[in-house]
Amino acid sequence: MAEVTELKDANFFSYLAGSPIPVAVTFYSRGAKPAMEELATIEELAIEYDGVVKFAKANVNETERAVDFLGILCVPSIILFQKQKIIDRIVGLISREKLAERLEENLRRLV
């Protein structure tokens, strides 16, 4: 079963660098209801895309350096990385269907 990895500032960029496949990172805050809804979607997609895309989550209060570096201004925000390069950025709550469509579009471009 696919796992959604919790990232911290200490392991954020090394996790991205160590992944041979794209990584979708969801930035969230525990008090933000839309962000918590997005995490539920991410957990479902992690199972569906197991072995194709890694999914991770980053609490903005525990990844302040990464948030500052990446210019995260609101939650939820999702950034898709390939080898530490930003491939796509989604700001705000997005439906499961739209998120899956965006992932598919990006995966086709990466091949």
Structure overview:
The protein has helices at 12-17, 33-48, 64-70, 96-110, and strands at 4-7, 23-28, 54-59, 77-82, 85-91. The mean pLDDT is 94. It starts with a strand and ends with a helix. It has 4 helices and 5 strands. The longest helix is centred in the middle third of the chain and has 16 residues, at 33-48. The chain is an alpha/beta fold. A hairpin with a 2-residue loop joins strand 4 and strand 5. A 5-stranded mixed beta sheet has the order 1-3-2-4-5.
| Rg (C-alpha, Å) | 13 Å
Structural class: alpha/beta
What shape does the CA trace take?
globular
Order of helices and strands: EHEHEHEEH
The number of helical runs is 4
Short recap of the structure:
Helix content is 40%, strand content 26%.
Layout of SSEs?
Blueprint: E1 4-7, H1 12-17, E2 23-28, H2 33-48, E3 54-59, H3 64-70, E4 77-82, E5 85-91, H4 96-110
Key features?
4 helices; five-stranded mixed β-sheet; 5 strands; alpha/beta
